Amino acid sequence: MNLPALFIDPWRRFRGSDRYAESVRVGLALGGIVAWCLARGDIHAVIPALLGAIACALAETEDHWRSRLGTLLVTLACFAIAAMAVQWLLPTPWLFAASLPLATFALVMLGAASGRYATIAGGTLILSVYTMIGVDAAHGSFTDPWHEPLLLLAGAGWYGVLSLAWSALAPQQALRLALARSFDALADYLDCKAALFAPVHGVDRDALQLQLALRNERVVQALNATRLVLVDRIGNRRPRGTTAARLQLYFMAQDIHERASSTHHPYDALAEALFHSDVLFRCGHLLRLQADGCRARAAALRLRVPFRRSPIAAAALADLHDAVAAMKTQASPPPAEVQHAVDALAHNLEAIQIRLGDATRHAPAVDDGLVLQDPGPQTPSEAWARIRIQFTPRSMHFRHALRLALALLAGYLVLLAVHPRQGYWILLTTLLVCQPTYGATRRLLLERIVGTVLGLVAGWAALKLAPFGLWQMGLIVLTGVGFFATRQRRYALATAFITLFVLLCFNQIGNGYSVMWPRLLDTLIGAAIAALAIYLVLPDWRGRQLGEVLAEALRSDARYLERILAQYASGKQDDLAYRIARRDAHNADAALSGQFAAMLREPDRAPASREALLRFLTAAHLLLGQLSALGAHRQAMPPAALAPVQATGRQVIDALDELADVLSGRPAVPPASSESAFVAPTAEDAASRFVLGQLVRVMTQYARLSEHARELAAH
């Protein structure tokens, strides 16, 4: 056995994990604080300094060091204002009770400007509660009343310096990991897509389409996160060097996503027509190999090793072409329509294989400054405009801000009534559990309670085995790192880590056992307040916004089709306008999938309504797949062939916009145009025939969507 490889490979995998960088930074920050406090003999400074570092880590964004420096200064300024305000207002309960909901509402509404502001606002709220906890834990240990806030800021500043240095020394790490997540999500999507090509009877392809729509949501989220990291690195500059190469990988992932989501023909009809052929089997086999190729791309990015093409996938592509050729020479070949669809499908899979091996093939030009659209506000006035537009009860952001403000006020009043000492965990639990949606709140509520119980049991065992000793300082650092390593995917385990962290911290300045029962009681009270708030205070049931979400999906599809048809006139070009339209269509489809998932978790949803939404979701995703096929096969067409294509496409666009207007207005949906009422012109050349055939299939989906919309309106 190769012992060096035995240790090197796990180390490389650990370094390539998503949580490695943050975990190491947190470990260095917490370890440095503990060492500093021990060296000075100032054990009472441990809790506020550690809490400040954790709050700063929670407010961190994946920015380049230039952007991170500005973000860090804004974060520390917000932290300073919040900590000083809490220190000043906390001794006067009525003034603090009046200020708490106002500050909470303002900070949550600040997050409407952009995701970066939302992260800073959330971290500031957490630090405010940490300040209350630190002041409560100190109970007179410091003669200077401002000593506690300064320790919190010192801990936050220490972590900020480490984060800034890490970003400067490893400027490409966040981008590599974001791209790796995108390719991993693409791999899962391709695997799910391959299941649709099973040439067997009895396959529930509607269920597979639903699963595919949910997988598509993850791909869209991963690509959006990668785009934000790229925008931060590129800015208004022309990308160069490694950043330019990673930009081409992002474009490659986008192109593969468009081609992978393409639908060229109804899958049930393909399975029926090709039941005795191995064409569909070979399509599914090649898709699975391409999924492995995406995972190999992700692994190469994570481990920083060269990407190697798979010869097996190239052989599978050649076998597919041979199978298609053999299908056409059969004694009874399938209908011409099926043959044309299979040709387009094989061409699309070949294009995926080429792009997967060469990131620069068909890559968009990057000569100007408009390589990527920056979603953040460019000026303070634009940021204020984004916030101001959310000041309406119809806004989910406004409702969450008001709900959280009232929930924290209720938590503070309960705190005063139940136990003013050590009661601020009620506010922290309410803050972390109360989410914008009912489903997310319910999930975090249960995981928070389970994690707290596990953490208390582990803390009881740790204090029993060794109630005192320096080893607890090391365990404090390890539990803090464990919290950040697990908080994204295993929230219950993360809660257990942070609960054990708290017990050990308090054991350094008193008796850890004294906070065990208050911690459990406060968690239960805070969770109950969050549950009541999400259910009673402006409940944001997903069904109330359903019509607008459905309408936005159709409008985005119409704009996507407009851009596609324009390029059949000018030729294929992945310019910014086209990529924005494509991304908007996929974002709207992902929002529809998220709407469905959220509605499943809400109470009092009629099964019939869920079934109607499920059918609409699968039909909408299939419609997007048909549009993606048109986008994947873009090419310039002669004027004579282009005229009927554009005229037919205009009818389809108008029909989608009309149905979207009906859905957003929420009246009864009128009967849809039947497929027979929409007859596309005949075409001689293969390109026109393919485009017109796809537009007919889009109108078929339009008719189904109209029917499903009527079902939803009836419920």
UniProtKB/TrEMBL annotation:
Main subcellular localisation:
membrane
In this protein, which residues make up the domain named Integral membrane bound transporter?
Answer: 413-532
Tree of life domain: Bacteria
InterPro entries reported in the protein's UniProt record: Integral_membrane_YccS (IPR010019), Integral_membrane_YCCS_YHJK (IPR010020), Memb_transporter_dom (IPR049453), YccS_N (IPR032692)
A Pfam family annotated for this chain is FUSC-like
Membrane topology per record: Multi-pass membrane protein
- Establish whether keyword Transmembrane is in the entry: yes
Can you supply one Gene Ontology CC term for this chain's record?
Answer: plasma membrane
Q: Give the family this protein belongs to, as stated in its UniProt record.
A: Belongs to the YccS/YhfK family.
Protein name as it appears in the record: Uncharacterized protein
